[in-house]
């Protein structure tokens, strides 16, 4: 189909350029209910996004207009030509400031090594590893496994012809504990870009240990303030919020009044933050505009060092665009996890979702499971919330030396927020 | 906009019937779900315009079979005469897969014989893309002129037309409907303090969507300016009045997810133990259903081919029903309620909410405000998260208006993060207003995934909540 698209787009005289995104998905999915197989699924699809570009003058200003349409099945030549004309007309109405499309180099492709198993067999093996760790009252009431092979092929009128293939394994696991008086569960969404059965085993074990702790957890009493330790996904989420305003798009639209050289940490008593963006893997060679990706430092020792983002808005700011980068990389911290845990603290094991509002300087969340250390003993606790001022948190932040790699994040596994309100 | 059922899906019907007949020789259940959703989102801000496909855009099929042990599905976006043997071979390979783990004990889905076609066209005038861009640009310019504090204004109109069909041995259903979601965002800044206001709603009339967007922008601007003086609330327990969007958020997060009956099959819902028992104040009646009210999730049949329902979940405080997809209902021995929904044709169908709301009561909002000594009127949904087994709750509202001695003081707090225990919150409801509003612009995930469009809402409620 891509050949038909290229031919039709090349023949369309009204447009200045075009870009085709071909997204191919091959996936296997398995759904287990109370540790028995309920449903299996296969996905085999190819979908296209086609963007057409026009260049024109409007009151003496040069404009680039674009319009994108989606296709999932083959059209006749006439139907396709009509679609392109419709999009070309829409593009002629869009008077965006002029920008150049990304020029291509030579035809290139990137490929992540496959996981080495037939996908349905792999899912079965993983389920087996998870269920091997369970007991009759400590089990996974729901387990959903998703293996995806995603191929993105971008071809443009400017010579881009890049293809990348990535593999991903996602697991939604619901560890559950049936006790004498109560039944409890936790929610776990795990992502992997490699197959390591020891890691699966460890994650299954940890999930089951955590849900056992939730059963044992009591309401927190007589603690109105505490230092809070976050880990993994919650740490990633915090950093994602911290750099969100420094994309080219955000800067161009003035979502923040901070600029390169400004500090995001004031009166630092804790550790300085260095936050970069990088490709998801070696196979993540380019973005949807056809920009070849390389890492960029966004925050350097607490100071905004670079903006980031896609082609159009990079050009609007007069910056050579770094492209859309999928992974946040944060430099190693100075504190060991053991030292962080020396003093009284609350370590959050499961949040309903971290809440961050950078404009209101708010950070907080409802805690589903935490471990409270009172200086002498550890107590599993639940059913409370924490909150605080994000700016104050950043000035006293502690980052762990221990590192973690999860989907979208490489950096300290643990982070300590000082002096949070507990309710 | 075509205002008619997908020509593409229609053109595949004969082939699909052949495929069903062929697979029916081997499998006790065969169905094919087809979807063809097209649409456009037009986004205009103070310096750029974008025309991109609606986020709902998709076109493809799900072929589902039962081999008397497990259900198997193949998602594809090509069914042609030429590839039917390949599709059958893939289905056979999938259905024949024997892993190391036993299958659940499940029977074959039973379906009544039903052949029906449904159409709900866009209401009112249709607009060309240049007309829409001009109108949106006019709104942006007008909002920018409201105050020198406005930094950016963004408006968007997402227009979708949905064609879906469901075919099996006994069923031949097709539906066509349209939906339009206008959205707006206003960013303001004063002395380095940045805030924003936004709004989003839904309708099946482009004309109405464009008309209602203008006052929505004015309100978003007003709220953004007010938020410049907001402070974060002091954590504590407060009497609050929830505006309809927050009422809806509570209905959705606090209770709705917990009565999705695929959770019952997985022993994931505490509510299973509470049928016929009080779970809320007797003032509370709660509904869900594609046919329960008219909003974004008002389809005619669900992605399992089950006709839309209006399900009463809580009746005067007592839990009376859950909501289900076809497979979960089968496993529980219940009739399905038309709540089987897929994020896309590439995903499984789950029990999902549609339009979820608390029914209106008898109280006057003004009287409810008067009854509060110190609390907040909280408004505008930001997000929420469910905890169906343990009934924790987290609901985040954009802002709260302070009430002291029965009067709104003009002070505003933001954000308002409510948390606590579902039953405590629902039992604390002491007044339900006679107002009713449903907001049809939300998206809902199940856990961290499976996003579908939902609406929620209801009246104003008076309750006691933890804000922290």
What are the salient characteristics of this protein?
heterodimer, A: 423 residues, alpha+beta, PmbA/TldD fold, 2 domains, 9-stranded mixed β-sheet, 6-stranded mixed β-sheet, 22% helix, 42% strand, globular, B: 468 residues, 8-stranded mixed β-sheet, 9 helices, 23 strands, 40% strand
Structure explained in plain terms:
Chain A contains nine helices and 24 strands. With 423 residues, chain A is an alpha+beta fold. Chain A has two domains: 2-215, PmbA/TldD superfamily (PmbA/TldD fold); 217-423, no CATH class. In chain A, the strands form three sheets. In chain A, strands 1, 2, 3, 4, 5, 6, 7, 8 and 9 form a nine-stranded mixed β-sheet that branches. A six-stranded mixed β-sheet of chain A has the order 14-13-12-15-23-22, with helices on one face. A five-stranded mixed barrel of chain A has the order 11-16-18-20-24. Chain B has three domains: 7-118, PmbA/TldD fold (2-Layer Sandwich), CATH 3.30.2290; 121-162 and 177-227, PmbA/TldD superfamily (PmbA/TldD fold, 2-Layer Sandwich); 236-467, no CATH class. In chain B, a hairpin with a 2-residue loop joins β17 (392-404) and β18 (407-413). Chain B starts with 6 loop residues before the first helix and ends with a strand. β2 (36-58) of chain A pairs parallel with β4 (71-76) of chain B.
């Amino acid at each position: 189909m891509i050949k038909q698209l290229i031919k039709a787009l090349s023949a369309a005289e009204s447009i200045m350029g075009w870009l085709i995104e071909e997204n191919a998905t091959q996936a296997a999915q398995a759904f287990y209910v109370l540790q028995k197989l309920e449903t299996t699924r296969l996905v085999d699809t190819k979908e296209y996004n086609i963007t057409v570009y026009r260049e024109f003058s409007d009151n003496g200003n040069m404009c680039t207009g674009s319009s994108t349409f989606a296709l999932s099945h083959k059209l006749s030549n006439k139907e396709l030509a009509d679609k392109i004309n419709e999009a070309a007309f829409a593009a002629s109405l869009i008077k965006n400031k002029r920008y150049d499309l990304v020029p291509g180099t030579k035809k290139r492709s990137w490929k992540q090594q496959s996981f080495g198993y037939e996908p349905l067999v792999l899912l079965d093996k993983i389920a087996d590893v998870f269920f091997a760790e369970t007991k009759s009252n400590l089990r996974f009431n729901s387990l959903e496994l998703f293996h995806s092979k995603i191929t993105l092929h971008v071809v443009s009128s400017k010579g881009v012809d890049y293809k990348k293939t990535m593999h991903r394994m996602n697991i939604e696991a619901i560890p559950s504990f049936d006790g004498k008086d109560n039944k409890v569960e936790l929610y776990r969404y795990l992502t992997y870009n490699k197959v390591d059965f020891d890691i699966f085993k460890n994650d299954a074990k940890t999930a089951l240990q955590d849900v056992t702790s939730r059963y044992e957890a009591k309401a927190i009493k007589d603690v109105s303030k505490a230092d809070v330790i976050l880990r993994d996904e919650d740490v990633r989420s915090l950093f994602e919020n911290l750099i969100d305003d420094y994309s080219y798009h955000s800067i161009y639209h003035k979502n923040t009044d901070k600029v390169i050289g400004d500090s995001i940490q004031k009166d630092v008593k804790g550790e300085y933050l260095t936050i970069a963006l990088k490709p998801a893997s070696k196979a993540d060679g380019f973005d949807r505009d056809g920009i070849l990706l390389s890492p960029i430092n966004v925050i350097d020792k607490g100071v905004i060092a670079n903006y980031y983002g896609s082609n159009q808005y990079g050009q609007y700011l007069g910056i050579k665009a770094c492209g859309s980068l999928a992974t946040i990389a944060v430099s190693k911290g100075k504190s060991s996890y053991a030292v962080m845990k020396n003093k009284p603290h609350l370590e959050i094991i499961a949040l309903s979702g971290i809440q961050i509002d950078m404009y209101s300087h708010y950070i907080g969340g409802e805690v589903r499971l935490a471990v409270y250390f009172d200086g002498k003993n550890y107590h599993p606790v639940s059913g409370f919330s924490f909150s605080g001022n994000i700016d104050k948190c950043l000035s006293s932040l502690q980052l762990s030396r221990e590192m973690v790699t999860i989907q979208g994040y490489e950096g300290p596994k643990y982070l300590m927020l000082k002096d949070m309100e507990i309710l | 906009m075509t205002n008619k059922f997908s020509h593409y899906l229609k053109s595949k019907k004969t082939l699909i019937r052949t495929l069903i007949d062929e697979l029916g020789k081997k499998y006790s259940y065969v169905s094919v779900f087809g979807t063809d959703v097209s649409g456009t989102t037009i986004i205009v801000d103070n310096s750029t315009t974008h025309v991109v496909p609606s986020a709902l855009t998709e076109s493809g099929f799900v072929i589902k079979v039962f081999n008397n042990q497990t259900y198997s599905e193949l998602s594809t976006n090509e069914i042609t005469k030429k590839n039917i043997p390949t599709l059958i071979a893939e289905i056979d390979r999938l259905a024949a897969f024997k892993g190391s783990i036993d299958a659940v004990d499940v029977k074959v889905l039973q379906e009544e014989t039903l052949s029906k076609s449904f159409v709900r066209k866009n209401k009112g005038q249709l607009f060309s893309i240049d007309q829409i861009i001009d109108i949106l640009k006019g709104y942006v310019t007008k909002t920018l002129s409201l105050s020198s504090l406005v930094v950016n204004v963004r408006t968007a109109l997402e227009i979708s037309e949905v064609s879906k069909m469901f075919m099996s041995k006994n069923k031949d259903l097709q539906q066509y409907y349209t939906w339009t979601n206008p959205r707006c965002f206003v960013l303001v800044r004063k002395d380095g303090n940045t805030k924003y206001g936004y709004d989003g709603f839904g309708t099946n009339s482009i004309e109405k969507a464009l008309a209602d967007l203008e006052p929505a922008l004015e309100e978003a601007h007003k709220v953004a300016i007010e938020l410049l003086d907001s402070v974060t609330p002091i954590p504590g327990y407060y009497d609050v009045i929830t505006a309809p969007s927050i009422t809806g958020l509570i209905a959705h997060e606090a209770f709705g997810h917990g009565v999705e009956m695929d959770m019952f099959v997985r022993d994931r819902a505490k509510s299973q133990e509470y049928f016929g028992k009080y779970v809320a104040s007797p003032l509370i009646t709660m509904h869900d259903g594609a046919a329960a009210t008219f909003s974004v999730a008002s389809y005619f049949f669900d992605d399992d081919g089950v006709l839309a329902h209006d399900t009463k979940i809580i009746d005067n405080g007592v839990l009376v029903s859950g909501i289900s997809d076809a497979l979960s209902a089968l496993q529980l021995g219940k009739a399905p309620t038309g709540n089987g929904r897929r994020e896309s044709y590439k995903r499984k169908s789950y029990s999902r909410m549609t339009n979820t709301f608390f029914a209106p009561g008898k109280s006057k909002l003004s009287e409810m405000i008067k009854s509060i000594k110190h609390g907040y009127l909280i408004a505008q949904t930001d997000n929420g998260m469910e905890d169906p087994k343990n009934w924790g709750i987290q609901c985040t509202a954009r802002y709260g208006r302070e009430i002291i001695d029965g009067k709104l003081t003009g002070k505003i707090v933001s954000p308002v993060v409510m948390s606590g225990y579902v039953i405590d919150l629902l039992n604390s409801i002491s007044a339900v207003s006679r107002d009713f509003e449903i907001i049809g612009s939300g998206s809902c995930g199940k856990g961290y995934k499976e996003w579908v469009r939902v609406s929620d809402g209801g009246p104003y409620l008076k309750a006691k909540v933890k804000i922290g």
